[in-house]
Amino acid sequence: MARRPASPKRLNAASLASLGADRLGDLLMQAADGDALLKRRLRLVLAAEAGVEPLTVELDKRLTALASARARVSWRKRPDLLRDLDMLRRAVVEDLAPTAPVAGLDRLIAWFDLFRGLTLRAKDPRGEMTAAFEAAAPDLWTVAQTALMDQAAMERLAAAIERHPLDYARWIGAAGEALSPELARALLAVLDTSSGVRGARTAIRRLADRAEDLDLWLSLVTPDEQGSPDFAAAAARRLLAAGRIAEARQALEAALKPSAANRRFTFGRSPAAGPPPLTPAWEAASIDLLDAEGRKAEAQDLRWVLFERDLSAPALRAYLSRLPDFDDVEALDRALAHAATYADFETALGFLMDWPAHREAAALVERRIREVRSPLAMKADWAARLAQKYPDAAERLLAAP
After folding, report:
1. Residue 52: exposed, middle, or buried by beta-carbon count in 10 A (0-12, 13-18, 19+)?
2. Is residue 356 reached through a cis peptide bond, with omega within 30 degrees of 0 on the bond before it?
3. What are all long-range contacts of 348-352, with beta carbons under 8 Å and residues at least 24 apart?
4. Are the beta carbons of 394 and 383 closer than 8 angstroms?
5. 84-109 CB burial, b ≥16 within 10 A, e <16
6. pLDDT over 90 (residue 163)
7. For the whole model, what pTM was predicted?
8. Cβ 129 vs Cβ 83: under 8 Å
9. In the structure, what pLDDT confidence band is assigned to residue 10 with cuts at 50, 70 and 90?
10. How far apart are CA 261 and CA 276, in angstroms?
């Protein structure tokens, strides 16, 4: 029997290495002749091997070219541009910054400076450009942390924030754990925190939040924001964490007083129309405030009220967690019974499915499925979860409108 010819090697790093450096070099040059991105990547790799100075020269050349370009970028060329940007970022973060943090930070600042110009000349209906820069934000702050002790570098980063405060406000928000309190304080020390430039307040306030500088954060709150229930809740939570309980109450109560300062949050109503509609965040913060003030029973009563009104699972879990052993079992039975009689069938079933309380959910379907008048968004998912133990209920659910 004739032997079968040997199969070609799989395409992987090891099999390519077996071709030898000369053969690989020829192949790469042939490929690079028709691929500008590959050619730039190879130049960056060679520059990185040569040292910091050649790499910075190569990076600066490309960053300058992108910054000075004025041609429109069509949707067909947008993917190549995104790959080009990613290649440059990785060269800075992985090759330059580990050995030259300040040089790496300067190039990352230049990279982020490209954002505003690119968004003006590139068609990006799906927001891929914005997403790419937001995803890169942790790299900026990580590299900045390594350059923290260089005052001039911090001043250059602060200048970049002042040039594009709205963009940097977004990237501060996307920093994750990479933006440390220490770094935020270093930047605030060289920023003009009283700047009236549009967007500067937001960027500085986010830095103040990161720096754990509550007084600076509060000083940047506008009268309009004080009247917003959600913003009042955010301020109250920070004040409670700092043990400033009386100020937390003042922050929450500011959203209860209709006035010219918070008309945008009362939909233009006059003070005589009463306080603005409260929000779940405001209500949750008010409960935490009652706890901090030692009014535990009132806080518990409000948790139960929120659960009864909205079938709020977080409110119920918080309520149950504060009950003694065995009392929580009785309270849960009472809660599930209330959910079974809740006016809105879809909300009730959603709560029972997610708790989870599938036996009670199946009973609800059997008893009240005729109330359904419009399509249930989660019908298929709920039926699949009920099917194994409660097949009749699952079938009736699927048969509903």
Report:
1. middle
2. yes
3. 348/311, 349/376, 349/382, 350/378, 351/311, 351/313
4. yes
5. bbeebbebbbebbbeebbbbbbbbbb
6. yes
7. 0.76
8. no
9. confident
10. 12
